[in-house]
């Protein structure tokens, strides 16, 4: 399983998180900044990064509440993809 790390310590807005995450996923430029688009991309083959992989999120402890809430929802999307679609993707907080 490929391991990657994303640092969100200076993310002030949810779009900052999407920008970092989509870059690490090597998502296409037209990828939307929402959870439905994220689901579609991690359960298909549109990203340059293909499963299996694990993304470790660091620097999350002092981010604004909207960013923290989004990170929790993104983690849930990854967990759902792993459980429901049997796709080997993980997002964890380190």
Automatic annotation (TrEMBL):
SUPFAM superfamilies: Barstar-related (SSF52038). InterPro entries: Barstar, Barstar-like_sf. Gene3D superfamilies: Barstar-like. It holds the Pfam family Barstar. Residues 1-84 form the Barstar (barnase inhibitor) domain. Belongs to the barstar family. This is Barstar, RNAse (Barnase) inhibitor. It comes from Marivita hallyeonensis.
